[in-house]
Amino acid sequence: MSRHMYFHREIDQLKKMVLEMGTLAEDRLRRASIILESGDNDEAQSLMSGDWEIDDMEIRVEEECLKVLALHQPVARDLRLIVSVIKINSELERIADIAVNIAKRVLTINKTKPADYTFALDYRSMAAKALEMVKTALDALVTEDAALARRVFLMDEEVDQERNAAYKSVIAEISHSAEHAACLINLYLIARHLERIGDRAKNIAEEVIYLVEGEIVRSSSDPH
């Protein structure tokens, strides 16, 4: 096998690995969304205990990227691909971490929320939008579609609006149920977790645009 063919075989393997990483991250987020609705302690513990798997995968992808860089010293578009994969790999690991944080937050709420306290926030829509953002960003990566990647930016605005609505609801509830402030703050922090997942998906979309067009896209609101 020629050096050129070997290089492109390694590039294909790299793409396959980062998409596997994406599948793992999507799975964690989907499970966290179910836990938000069910409040299931056992499922939350299960999600938390499997965090090592995606951490291990992140290391493998990064090591493979560094190996390709060292052996082949790629340039132009091939170099952009590897740089993008390194960054996307990191974003996917963060998404999985945030999913675990959601599970931890649910456990905390279950422990601290009084049985007779009925206030709740419905996060089904926000969680679904965050998951759709991740899926769309990964689809844009697979198809190398910059236009599809830019759709993620519009979806991010919707997630931010739902975060703002959650904040207003919690502030209003605290004003006349101050004794439940700790529980309410934890409820709001779930909105912050979902918003951050949207931000991570937006970062992935930015990397897809960089890969396809060679254009560095950054929003002033990005939490880089």
CATH fold annotation? Methane Monooxygenase Hydroxylase, Chain G, domain 1
CATH C-level category? Mainly Alpha
Query: Could you say what the CATH architecture is?
Result: Up-down Bundle
Structural class: mainly alpha
Tell me what portion of residues adopts beta-strand conformation: under 5%
The SSE order reads HHHHHHH
Q: Main beta sheet, described?
A: none
How many helices? 7
Helix content: over 70%
The CATH H-level homologous superfamily: Phosphate transport system protein phou homolog 2, domain 2
Radius of gyration from CA coordinates: 20 Å
Q: Count the beta strands.
A: 0
Shape: elongated
Structural summary, described in words:
With 224 residues, the protein is mainly α. The protein has one domain (3-213): Phosphate transport system protein phou homolog 2, domain 2 (Methane Monooxygenase Hydroxylase, Chain G, domain 1). The protein is 84% helix and 0% strand. It has 7 helices and no strands. The chain has helices at 3-38, 41-49, 51-72, 76-112, 124-143, 146-176, 181-213. Helix 5 (124-143) runs antiparallel to helix 6.
Quick summary:
Helices cover 84% and strands 0% of the residues. It is mainly alpha-helical and 224 residues long.
Sum up the structure in keywords.
7 helices; 224 residues; elongated; Methane Monooxygenase Hydroxylase, Chain G, domain 1; mainly alpha
